[in-house]
Each structure stands twice: as structure tokens, then as C-alpha cells.
Amino acid sequence: MIEMFLKEMNEEAQTTRKMLERIPEDKYDWKPHAKSMTIQRLATHLAELPGWVKMALETDELDFNASAYVPKLIKSNKELLELHEKSLEEGRSSLKKANDDVLTKIWTMRNGDIIYSKRTKAEVIRMTFSQIVHHRAQLGVFLRLLDIPIPGSYGPSADEGNM
Asked: Which of 6, 14, 7 is nearest to 97 (CA)?
């Protein structure tokens, strides 16, 4: 399982990098809808997500009540890509030190007494990868609405002229 997770993490990181580097810095405050995150906030969250692998492997829970989440403030694509690489390395390093036995242990997401989920650490890693794909797709819609060419994810995109 560990080797499979490492392979998937590395493959998804390549596509994520291509998406993050295309964000126009002058559009960081843009959002397509009042309920949407800004493109800056969405991209920052996407860049942070690989670090959730470390959190899943090295902790037993996330309690939003005990430690309030404060998003990092990035000011450039350079900072954004550096954040992604740092998060990616944290996740990779944690996976490389882990063994399959730890993957069956339970990890809890809560807000004080309110439990949102209890899953195995393997399931949390899978959920993290799903979140990366989900938020990357959101970013693709944001970029499309800004008329920014979209890179291919699992093959060429319509913008790459190979479809």
C-alpha cells in the first residue's frame, strides 16, 4: 500500500504543479461565485493538501476545536509552488517512514465533541488524494472561466490540441 500511495502522490503532484503555475497572480482575489473561495485560497488549500498525508500518519485525529485552522497567505506563484513542494515532501517523507500496519489504525476528524468521521489512516490518505483531484478540478473551472488554457490531467486537454 505504501508504494502504491507514493506512486499516486508523485503522479498527482505533476498535474497539480501544472495547474498551480498557470494561475494569474493578478487574479488572486477573483472568485466565480459569492460562495466560492478566491482562486488564491483554493490554490493554497490545494498546495497544502499533500501535507495531510503526514497528519494522517503521524497523528490520531484532527480536532478543529483544539487548533483553529489558519490558512497560509501566499503572495506569488513562486510561494504557492514552494508551499506545494514543502507539503509534498512532508507527505512523501512520512509515507516512506511508515509501514502498512499503521494504515489500519483509526484516525478521527472532529470539532470538539462532534465527530465528523472515523476512518483508517489508509482511508484518510485516499480521501486526501480525492480532495486533491476535487480541488484541482475546481481550479480548472476557475481557470477556464478566466480563459486560461487547462493542462491535461490523465491525457491531453482540449487546450493542448490533441483531442
From this structure: 6
CA atoms within 13 A on the CB side of 70: 3
How far apart CA 41 and CA 33 sit, in angstroms, is 14
Question: 111: which 3 cell numbers?
Answer: 470539532
In 10 A of CB 102, how many CB atoms?
A: 17
CB-neighbour burial class of residue 103 (10 A; exposed 0-12, middle 13-18, buried 19+):
buried
Count of domains for the chain: 1
Residue 59: give the domain boundaries: 2-155
First to last CA, the chain: 34
Task: Give, in order, the Cα–Cα distances in Å from 77 to each of 42, 132, 136.
Answer: 13, 18, 15
- Asked whether residue 60 is domain-assigned, the answer is yes
The rounded average pLDDT for each run of 10 residues, N- to C-terminus, in the chain (163 residues) is 96 96 97 96 97 97 90 94 98 97 97 97 98 97 96 88 62
pLDDT at position 163 is 54
In a domain? residue 118 = yes
Half-sphere exposure of 32 (CA within 13 A, CB side): 11
Instruction: Give me the CATH number covering residue 85.
Output: 1.20.120.450
What letter would DSSP give residue 98?
-
Domain assignment present for residue 115? The answer is yes
DSSP letter, residue 150: P
